[in-house]
Amino acid sequence: MDKINSLTGMMDLLASKTSTEELANKIFYTEKVLQEIFDNFKISQIRTPSLEHTNLFKRSVGDLSDIVNKELYTFSDKNDRSITLRPEGTASVIRSLIEKKLDGDFHKLWYLGPMWRYERPQKGRYRQFNQAGVEILGYKEGMAEFEMISMVCSINHRLKIEKPTIKINHLGDNETKKNFCDALIKYLKPIKSQLDEKDLSKLEKNPLRILDSKSPQTIELLKDGPKISEFLQESSLKIMDLIVDTFSDECEIQIDHNLVRGLDYYTGFVFEAISSNLGAQDAYLGGGRYDNLCKQLGGKDLPAIGMAIGIERLSLLSNVLEEYKTSLSLIIISSNMEPKAYKIAHNIRSLNNNINVDVQLSDGSLKSKLRRANKDNSSYAIIIGDEELGSDSVIVKSLSDDDSEQTIMKMNDFNNFIKNLK
Ligand code: HAM
Question: Is 240 found in the same domain as 126?
Fold first, then answer.
C-alpha cells in the first residue's frame, strides 16, 4: 500500500532521548523557558480554538495583507460556513475578550500553539509553525512599550541568543499615517513605471507596505522619498529614543523607519527582533501597538500592544540546552509478570519527583537492557531479579563513566538513597 507522508511544510516533532541538541528537544525546552519568563512578568495564559470564522482574520489581519490574500487555510464546514485555521493569535484573543465582555478591563495574556500559513516553505518558514504570543491590553502608549521590549531582552538573555537586533519604528496616529501616505503617493506616482507589479499594487492598495519592499530598485527609489520620521509627532519620536536609552546597555536596538510589519492592524509603536544567524527568514519575533482592533471587531475602545515569537526560529537560535535530570533505568530480570518489582518503580517516583524513572518494559538480556540504559543517559540502573525479590533488596549500578560500581541495597537503604538523589 502507498505510504502516507506529512503535508509539505508541516513537521513532526519527536524528542530525542540521546541528544538535547535535536531541534525537537530545543523547541520543547524553549517553550518551557518562555513560560517561565511569562510567569516572571505575571502574565496569565489564554488558550483559544485553532479554528475561527474566516471574517475574523479578514477584518483584523486585513484584506490587503499577504496573509489574508494568499496564505489562509480556509474551507467550508458541513453547514457551509467559511472557517479558517488561525494564521496568528491576536485576533482570536480580542474576539474572546469581546465575547466574554472583558474588553473593558486590563489584561496581560500569553498563548502558545500552532498557526497555519500557506507560504512557500524554506529554512525557518513552515506552513504549520508554533508561536508564543503576549498581548497587553487596556494600557495606552507608555510603560507597556517598555514592558514588551524588556521581555524581548529577557528572552535574548535567557536563551543566549547570538547577534540579536531589535528594530523599532512608530507608525504614528491616523492623521500622521494619512499625511505620510499622501506624500509617498505624490512622490512615487510620477516614477511608478520603475516599480514592479507587486509594489505597484501596494501603491494603490496599501502604500505604507511599499516601505518593506524587497525590490532593489524600489529600495533605491525610496532613499530620496519622504521619511515617516518627518511626519511623526514629537511624542512618538521621544518614546523610541527613551526605549533605546533604557535598554541599549544590554540589547542592540535600532530605529528603522522602514519597519512597517505585514499585518494591517498596527497603529503606533512596532518592533521586530532579527538575527543574522537565521538566513533569509531572519525575524524571530515581531509585534506592536494595535489600539483600534478591538473597536474594529465590535468591542470597546481597548488600547493594546503585543508580540508573537516564532518558536522554531527562536529555538534554532537558542544556545541553552535542557539539562538531563538524574534518571534511573529499572531492569527487571524475569520473564514473568513481576508486580512487586513494578511497585518498586512506582514507589521511587513518589519518594523523589525530581528524578525520572524508565521502567524497561521489553524482554531481553541484562546486557541489552544495560546498553539501552547507557544509551538513554540514565545515571543508574536498578536491577531486580528473583534473588533480589526474595531478599527484599535491589542492585544499584552507577552508569557514569568514572564510577561503574554496583551495590546491593536493602529496601530501607535504597529508599534513603532515592530520597537523597538530586
Ligand atoms: P508575525 O510577524 O506575522 O506577527 O509573526 C510573528 C513571528 O512568527 C515571526 O517573527 C516569525 O518568527 C514567526 N513566523 C511567522 N510566519 C512563520 C512561518 N511561516 N514559519 C515559521 N515562523 C513564522 C504576528 O503573528 C502578530 N500576531 C504578532 C502580534 C501579536 N502583534 C501584536 N500582537
Answer: yes
